[in-house]
Specification:
Layout lengths: L4 H11 L3 E5 L3 H14 L3 E5 L1 H7 L1 H15 L3 E8 L2 H10 L3 E4 L6 H18 L4 E5 L9 E2 L12 H11 L3 E3 L8 E2 H4 L9 H11 L2 E4 L7 H10 L3 E4 L1 H17 L6 H4 L1 H19 L5
Parallel strand pairs: 1-2, 1-10, 2-3, 3-4, 4-5, 5-7, 6-8, 7-9, 9-10
Helix pairs in contact: 2-13, 5-6, 6-7, 7-9, 9-10, 11-13
The protein binds zinc ion.
Length: 292
């Protein structure tokens, strides 16, 4: 019997490593993430935002991931990333998702807290084992290339808010705003700049809440900041923009190389390889595996 996501998170925390979370919205991305994780023999989470789920289909995505888990007896888990409504969260829970990021962080704090509390009760009644993540502070939106640093990236989570939110809602996982943000600025995408994290804040929030913590919008963050964030208390790290860049570049390479080719299965492996290389490098960093 394979381990549950809760057991995997508990073990990762004890081992001082983090679980990589990678967004998928097609079979190329899913194949790449699974191949990279399997090669390193580390557990992995694939996630899909509401828009990504709408493209693949909620139940179809759940079936893909479940089929991999069952056929290979592998710890691959599925997360409903950034879910902004209870209806969307319920749909994912019923489809068999292992976790839900219930994200009402755009609402005033008190309202976010109250509605997240209600979502936790509802989701647990559907799936007692489901992992529920709440989000406070603001980490921007859109895993794209932005022209400017989002002003919201500066609105960091306070320790007091984090403690109050976790105790009141009963979430399993907290996503605080600690310096990373969704997407990348042009200079980060070009490699001229890196994102930096508020490590002391991560440590203080962890000490005050003692829950699992997720780092969102980690694409383009200094490697050393990421490994230090794991030591400070981060358990799950989300990478999306880096994958999107690799996916598009790999697809363009595949098309250019196979000028007279029409078969998808001959063109798309270049995109799988390109994404797999990024996932593999990130998993090595998060787990220390394969770096010796
Ligand atoms: Zn996110």
């Amino acid at each position: 019997m394979a381990m549950t996501l809760r057991e995997i998170l508990t073990r990762a925390q004890a081992d001082g490593v983090a679980i990589g979370h990678f967004n998928v919205s097609d079979l190329v991305l899913l194949k790449a993430v699974f191949a990279a994780a399997r090669q390193l023999q580390v557990p992995v989470i694939v996630g899909a935002s509401e828009a990504e789920r709408a493209f693949v289909g909620v139940r179809q995505l759940a079936a893909w991931v479940r089929s991999l888990r069952e056929e290979f007896d592998y710890p691959i888990f599925l997360n409903a990333d950034h879910t902004h409504s209870l209806a969307g969260a319920v749909e994912a829970a019923r489809a068999g998702f292992d976790s839900v990021v219930f994200d009402l962080s755009a609402l005033p704090f008190a309202e976010n807290l109250q509605q997240t509390q209600r979502a936790v009760e509802t989701l647990r009644s559907i799936s007692p084992a489901i992992i529920i993540e709440g989000e406070i502070g603001n980490i921007g939106s859109g895993s794209e290339i932005h022209d400017n640093v989002p002003a919201s990236a500066l609105d960091l989570t306070s320790v007091g808010d984090a403690k109050h939110f976790v105790e009141s809602t009963g979430v399993d996982v907290l996503a605080p705003a600690v310096g990373s943000s969704h997407g990348m600025t042009r200079s980060v995408a070009d490699g001229h700049a890196r994102k930096h994290l508020d490590l002391a804040r991560i440590r203080d929030i962890k000490a005050a809440t003692n829950v699992f913590m997720t780092l969102h919008g980690a694409s383009g963050t200094q490697d050393e900041d990421l490994t230090n964030s794991i030591r400070a208390g981060i358990n799950i790290i989300h990478i999306n923009t880096e994958l999107r860049i690799a996916w598009k570049q790999g697809l363009l390479n595949g098309l250019a190389r196979a000028d007279h080719e029409l078969a998808a299965y001959k063109i798309l492996p270049a995109a799988v390889d390109s994404v797999q290389a990024v996932v593999s490098a990130r998993l090595r960093l998060f787990t220390g595996r394969g770096q010796e």
